[in-house]
Amino acid sequence: MEVSASIRQARQKQCHTLSEAVAKQILAEYGIAVPRGYVSGTPDEAVAAFAWLQSPVVLKVISPEVVHKSDIGGVQTNLITAEAVHQAATTMTQRVSAHGYQVEGFLIEEMAPSGCELVVGGVIDPRFGPLIMTGMGGIFVEVLKDVAFRFCPITAYDAWEMIHELHAAPILEGIRGQRPVSKEALIEVLLHVGGQHGLLLNLCDDIQELDINPLIVTDTRAIAVDVRFVLAAPTTAPTKEYETTW
Ligand code: ADP
Ligand code: MG
To answer: How close is the Cα of 69 to the center of ligand 2, in Å?
Structure first.
């Protein structure tokens, strides 16, 4: 399968993570919507790509060692003109370089409509296999640790339960006049990640962690606007830990 090929290639090159663009391609192959976008090497290339996209767009730095792009000025949202894209790419290069990181290029992509920002994650437990988690993004995950976990594979009912287990679940129903988010779209993403034929079970030999942060869920759809895959360490020959005596 195409997906495993790109992961194996990255592992052979001793990479620890996948680039955001490759990671998004993998999500798309598993049926998860991602923004339309292009990888460009220079500010001029980003401007050329802008012509093919629906404005407003987001510009993101591509730099293999960076984990939180926005912490170092590596994300610029709401760009609506070619000039703004060029300007953003130029200042982004200066800011990111000033933090000591190398700029490999830029990911330029369409902006998802506004909605609720959730997190969908996965980790491969060495003893129990893949675990899936979800929660509302931002402070709900980072500070309040309001998350729900399940072992994989999950069913649609498990996904439904996970969502309703969250303390922040009432927010999904729409507060202060906001429209409720599509739970169906969210459940579908949870199944594409943690279901019987989902990404985590399929790729559990090759990946260690998955972090979709955020998944933007609107009243009709769910779009993964940022994703990070941590690859499994290269396999070494198994060591003999103990000998049975019976
Ligand atoms: P970081 O590496 O800092 O987590 P992200 O790619 O998550 O960078 O971008 C930071 C924030 O910018 C996101 O949490 C989201 O609010 C917004 N964002 C990023 N990409 C998009 C997009 N395509 N559409 C809408 N908002 C986006
Ligand atoms: Mg993010």
So the answer is: 8
**Number of Cα atoms under 13 Å in the Cβ half of residue 1:** 9
For the chain, the first-to-last Cα distance in angstroms comes to 43
Helix/strand number for the chain, H first, E second:
9, 10
Where does residue 235 rank: exposed (0-12), middle (13-18), buried (19+ CB within 10 A)?
exposed
CA–CA separation, 182 and 177 (whole Å) = 15
Q: For residue 198, what are the CA distances in angstroms to 122, 162, 181?
A: 11, 17, 23
CB 158 less than 6 A from any atom of ligand 1 = no
Amino acid letter for position 35:
P
Return the amino acid letter for 69. Answer: K
Ligand 1 pocket, residue 20 CB under 6 Å: no
Bridge-based pairing of strands 147-151 and 227-231 is: unpaired
231 neighbors 23 (Cβ within 8 angstroms): no
Q: What angle do CA 27, 227, 42 make, to 5 degrees?
A: 100
Q: Is the confidence at residue 245, as pLDDT, over 80?
A: no
* Span from the CA of 240 to the centroid of ligand 1 (angstroms): 45
pLDDT tens-place string over residues 186-241: 999 999 999 999 999 999 999 999 999 999 999 999 999 999 999 998 765 555 55
Residue whose CA lies nearest to ligand 1 atom number 14: 214
CA–CA separation, 237 and 143 (whole Å): 40
Residue 33 DSSP symbol: B
Closest Cα to atom 19 of ligand 1: 225
